[in-house]
From TrEMBL:
<protein>
    <submittedName>
        <fullName>Iron permease</fullName>
    </submittedName>
</protein>
<dbReference type="InterPro" id="IPR036909">
    <property type="entry name" value="Cyt_c-like_dom_sf"/>
</dbReference>
<keyword id="KW-0479">Metal-binding</keyword>
<feature type="domain" description="Cytochrome c">
    <location>
        <begin position="133"/>
        <end position="220"/>
    </location>
</feature>
<dbReference type="GO" id="GO:0009055">
    <property type="term" value="F:electron transfer activity"/>
</dbReference>
<dbReference type="GO" id="GO:0020037">
    <property type="term" value="F:heme binding"/>
</dbReference>
<keyword id="KW-0408">Iron</keyword>
<keyword id="KW-0349">Heme</keyword>
<dbReference type="GO" id="GO:0046872">
    <property type="term" value="F:metal ion binding"/>
</dbReference>
<dbReference type="InterPro" id="IPR009056">
    <property type="entry name" value="Cyt_c-like_dom"/>
</dbReference>
<dbReference type="Pfam" id="PF00034">
    <property type="entry name" value="Cytochrom_C"/>
</dbReference>
């Protein structure tokens, strides 16, 4: 079972049905997105299962093994070009081996992300919106679809939250949200989380899901953003060096690191600007 933790909302469990598909023909495929999401989960949450070469949580370790087997099966059954498939399968086989050997987290994360990048490169999977998401529309969608569980301000205390196991994610939790990219949030919204109250919102359009994902990422900055009148200027400055794809696919930790390569000061404000503003925002 998926552990009751801050990461649960962003974990995709094993789907009951795996649909056959042609990856190259379908740009919006749940099985492919499930593969990517499971690799993200392994990369991020392995430390909850293994530390210093020892299993610290048997259930978590079983999950790592299960998810590793699942992503291998998904790629094995895919219609990827044979050469690409064999390369990715070899990477996933090594990932499974390293998990069995209880290797360090860095090794597991490197292997999982390497396979993830190869899958995205091979399939052309969209990992970013075509245009900047509309945070105002994202807020409207959030009010309509998310407040009953996640609360008005995103703190996980909605009217239906009591008794839910796992509890709805607190989007204001900086330790969690700084590790999550909008792309990861997008996949979770689109796919849902098996075995939890988090349903799929695949009925929303692609644009609407991106609007909602970007809005969720903005929530932890809301209080500070409301008190700062310079954030649009900070957004415009940061947007000169960081593109939309990077903002969509990088976590706050990764985005902050990228900003520090180009700017010597105010990087936290630049990050806040990128998460709370959009082109032409007033």
């Amino acid at each position: 079972m998926i552990r009751n933790s801050l990461y649960t909302f962003f974990t995709v469990g094993v789907l009951l049905c795996i649909f056959s598909y042609n990856v190259m023909a379908s740009k919006d495929d749940s099985s492919l997105r499930t593969t990517i999401h499971l690799l993200d989960y392994i990369s991020r949450d392995y430390t909850a299962a293994v530390q210093n070469g020892q299993v610290i949580d048997e259930a978590e370790f079983a999950e790592m093994q299960e998810f590793s087997d699942k992503v291998y099966l998904l790629i094995e059954e895919s219609d990827l070009p044979q050469d690409n498939k064999l390369l990715i399968l070899s990477q996933l086989k090594e990932l499974g081996k390293q998990i069995e050997n209880k290797s360090p987290h860095k090794s597991i994360s490197t292997l999982a992300q390497k396979a993830r990048r190869e899958i995205i490169k091979t399939t052309g999977l969209k990992t970013a919106p075509l245009i900047w998401p509309d945070l105002k529309n994202g807020k409207s969608l959030y009010v309509q679809n998310c407040t009953s569980c996640h609360g008005v301000n995103g703190s996980g205390d909605g009217r239906l939250a009591a008794g839910l196991k796992p509890a709805p994610t607190n989007f204001l939790n900086a330790n969690l949200m700084q590790e999550i990219s909008p792309f990861q949030a997008y996949n979770t919204i689109k796919l849902g989380v098996e075995g939890t109250a988090m349903q799929s919102f695949a009925t929303l359009s692609d644009k609407e899901i991106w609007d909602l994902a970007f809005y969720i990422k903005s929530l932890r900055f809301t209080t500070q953003a409301d008190q700062n009148t310079e954030l649009q200027q900070k957004f415009d400055l940061a947007n000169n060096t960081v593109n939309l794809e990077e903002v969509a696919t990088l976590s706050d930790v990764e985005l902050l690191k990228s900003l520090r390569n180009d700017y010597s000061a105010d990087t936290e404000l630049l990050l806040m600007g990128l998460r709370t503003q959009f082109p032409g925002d007033n």
